[in-house]
Amino acid sequence: MASKELAAPCDLPEEVRAKNHQNTGAEGSPAPLPDFGYEYLDHTADIQLHSWGPNLSIAFEQCCVAMFGYITELEYVVPTFTQEITTEGDDLLSLLFHLLDEFLFLFSADPFFIPREVKITHLDIKNFKVTAIGRGETFDISKHPQGAEVKAITYSNMQVINSEDGKKWDCYVIVDI
């Protein structure tokens, strides 16, 4: 498949913009969501990332991947090296904010790192500390189709929610594009 340069978020291929959206099941009922994943929700002038997983680590990992999936098509990213980040916050929201912000900084500055995968290696929700490893490569405009520029992470309507049964975590983050 030939790569193409993408000018605006609306030019992202449907399969990228609608990553892991619900499929229609039997008789038009929505099929259940996979155990983990992410999707993009429309928001006035910005985009909302929604990620989920059976535990908080996976939901955070998916949120990071969702952010980079909006920047470029991750299928073109070859994991050639890793970058580790450690950050902390005052609560779960600020912890997620700082995690995304640190990864966005690695993308915005040398080495212009674009991870295809993110793995949380340590998550301390008592002291609000996280260590994560991204596997990816240096962003190359000739190789990686450009989606939307993520300018900043925002706290606007940010949510980290654990289901009543404790079996699912959801993260909602609006990013400034």
UniProtKB/TrEMBL annotation:
Cellular component GO terms held in the UniProt record: tRNA-splicing ligase complex
One GO MF term: metal ion binding
Gene Ontology biological process terms from the UniProt entry: tRNA splicing, via endonucleolytic cleavage and ligation
Keyword terms, alphabetized: Calcium, Metal-binding, tRNA processing
Gene3D superfamilies: Archease domain (3.55.10.10)
InterPro entries membership: Archease (IPR002804), Archease_dom (IPR023572), Archease_dom_sf (IPR036820)
Coiled coil: none
Annotated Pfam families: Archease
Segments forming domain Archease: 38-177
Family: Belongs to the archease family.
Name this polypeptide is given: Protein archease-like
